[in-house]
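Reading a protein record of the kind used here takes only a little practice. The record below shows the convention in full.

——
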Amino acid sequence: MKLKRILIFCVWGLVMAASVGAQSLERITPGKEWPDRKGEHINAHGGGLLFHEGKYYWYGENRPARGFTTEVGVEVYSSSDLMNWEDEGVALAVSEEAGHDIERGCIMERPKVVRNPKTGKFVMLFHLELKEKGYAAARVGFAESDSPVGPFRFIRSLRPNAGKWPTDFSRRDIRKAKKLKEADYKEWWTPEWREAIREGLLLARDVPGGQMSRDMTVYVDDDGKAYHIYSAEENLTLNLAELTDDYLDYTGRYVRIAPGGQNEAPTIFKHDGVYWMITSGCTGWAPNEARMFKAASLWGPWEQLPSPFVGKDAKKSFHTQGTYIFKVEGTEDGFVFMADRWNPQSLKNSRHIWLPIDFEADGTPVIRWVDSWSPVERFGTGL
């Protein structure tokens, strides 16, 4: 009888624990621990969102509790309301094969997944650094799947647009850039060095093997064309590159944005016919003041504007770094800024900061801090 009571008590405890873990969230609370359906903090950092057939899919870096390398791969979660997330497992796993591009111990960052309407495939791009090579490889990785939850099949990694010059570079610009030599500009940040960067000092260096590709995002325009936006030239310059129709390679068309401006963590969206891009400066894991750009065309010109953050701690972007901007399905103006509040002592426990974007009367985006918010209250829908 005593054993029976003990067993009943244990079963009841397990049921209660599962119940607590599965409690539904009714609000998003930026900066707080965000539990999934099992009660575990969501481990999808540097992530992006995809909406498909009534569900959102959140892809991100599965980060370790200690250390900086990738030991698992890219994690994916699903939700129908943007608040309660089911862990769907590893979408793209690291390889156990020695020497493989995504061998366990490499660095896989900022994964973004888009669905190709022509092929029906789900395509993933991510920033890749090879095992034990630090941040020297500066590659983009490509993977593909028939399902939004994977498994994704790794295809290859490379540096974008090898042998190609930006579309807005004239023959004169190319001749001038080819004459620039790094040995003549050993001291960084001088006026002469800055001018050389703008004219293509590092661009020309990297043309033969392809441009460096670090922090990145992917954007699909209204016409279905996809673009890869990434930090190049030692994180000094952004590139916007057009992808092929299958989203698995480059057409060779690309432009530089803000040469020498030191921008990373690009996020991009379109509102009322204007393209907006929010980036961060380059201060490692430490937060900094965000930058914002706008353009009438993806090909530019891009105009730099003040940071969109307003209020207390706006100079530090609310201690965040952006990772993606998505539009809430079924809305006209429902845009959400996704960001991470990095904890370099335990990247797994970095916090997710999701904030709704407001718009001024002239259409300029503004990001304000809110302690908690509901997609339903804010936008009238969670889908």
Residues 1-21 have pLDDT under 50 and may be disordered. DSSP finds five helices and 21 strands in the chain.
